[in-house]
Model the fold of this input.
Amino acid sequence: MASGPETTPASAPDDPRERKAAPAARRSTPGESARASSADTSSNVSADAEQSASRDAGRPGRMRRLAALARREALRTGLAAVSGVALAFAFPPYGIWPLSIVAVAALSLLTRGRTGRQGAWLGFAFGWPFFVVLLKWLHVVGWDATIGLAFIQGLFILGLGAGLALTSRLPAWPLWGACLWLTEEFLRDRLPFGGFPWGRLAFANTDSPYTPLAALGGAPLVSFTVALTGTLLAAVALTGLQLRSHSARTTRAYATGAGALALAGAVTAAGFAVPVPTKAADTVRIAVVQGNVQQPGMHFLGRPMQILNNHVEATLDLAERIKQGKEPKPDLVIWPENSSDLDPYKWPEAGDRIDKAVKAVGVPVLVGALVDHPTKEGYVENQGIVWDPKKGPGASYTKQHPVPFGEYVPFRDQLSKVITRLQQVPRDFYPGDHTGVLQTGPARLGDVICFEVAYDEIPRDTVRDGARALVVQTNNATYGRTGQPEQQLAMSKLRAVEHGRAVVTAATSGISAIVAPDGTVQQRTDEFTQDVLTGNLPLRDEITLADRVGAAPEWVIAIVGVLACAGAWLLGRRRRGARTPTGTQAPAAGHGDGIDEQDRQAQPEGQHQ
Done:
């Protein structure tokens, strides 16, 4: 057949005799050309429409299938969101720790047997509501900050959901699922900008049977055992559902369910068998000063030196009680983060006020202050400074892990033009380069500042470097009465067990506390009150197994989770390839248009793609 313009529907006559009668060399007039062009355009549009209709006819009902999929997944999506909210209630200030196990089991059941894409969606539907409720204290900055950070953190749970779906078809799937929970926490602890470890399962289990396991493998081991209990209970529930069918009531099915239940019980009870070392080599008497702030929220500072004066006055009052014999003299005094709201090296009036309080009490005081970086112009350091009554300021610790977007702004030049709120962080904090082991009077303390208590490596390295007790200097005034101080105190309790060290939390506005090496809170303050805690602090030199092994167990378990995912993916491809007839291509699970085989089979005859 000939090709070219002569054979197009617009130019070729239908009757061959008309083609013969047509003059061969006749020129078209301008009007005829326009009409011919118009006819060509109309005909091409008609042809495109026919081709589009033909394509639509080849893929009929796509939107209907997607709508059907959305309706079919609506219940699972809703259950995933409810489960995520339930997990948030496992954390302080609610502290219903069994919900952490229930939530893990629920997500395991919801993602079991799903495609990778479906599992990812269910993971996100679980993760975003979880973090919105958990991080609602960020609404002080703005609900957009809460929702935005929750969205970013939810993406990690999205990956977890996809991994749970893939590995749910493997033998021993509860084990691989528990590993994946730790893989997710491993990544979120480090990415992006140094990570954000809030919401780890371990931090919901600081008063549970799993807590003692922190002395063996730290927070990662606690998270793993909680997740393993949840996935095993999911296996028990799944077996129970299957046993409703008479044909499924086999000896093997009963043994599988009973074995999973027994193993879940053994994992839960394992913590009771772990000894938590608490015997002290000696003690030191401390005083923790909570000076309070003028108001909660973003603008807690008030006028300059107001917070500093609060802590000075509380210390002077302590000194007066000591002088009157109403209070035993401590060996050292601990002030919180930002207790001096002016740089005492730059502002003599601030240094003089601190010096007056320190000399009045007559013992070293660990002071929290923001100081200008000595060499880098425009940078500030968040420090804990040992202030001696005779020598004045001495050794100091600089916070190693400043909070992104709170204490420094990544890509400041670009982002601050778009997000003007970032201009409220006028200077970037400069990170320190060493641990906070400080000789404070007779005690060798390990200083950890604020959010650093959430990161495994900072307290661990501090204890390894010789800290006999830990001090968490913090300023929670921005997030007062929002639940955030309770969440941070829970981390201190877990760190006490993990490292076998007493932990002192010193906060400007609360919650200040003294935590024993076994994780029990011996004393604590109320929020937004001026108060002083005094007591004997146990000092220990022995380190736990968790400190000896470090991060190795976390790396191993996290890598196992990744390998399980890779193995499940490869096994799935091999099985699909084996089922595919020669010369055809099997659709990969989770690929293509996102419609699984169950959806396709539900379509009327002739509607399949």
Notes: DSSP finds 17 helices and 13 strands in the chain. Confidence is low (pLDDT under 50) at residues 1-46, 585-609. The longest helix spans residues 30-58. The two ends are 32 Å apart (CA to CA).
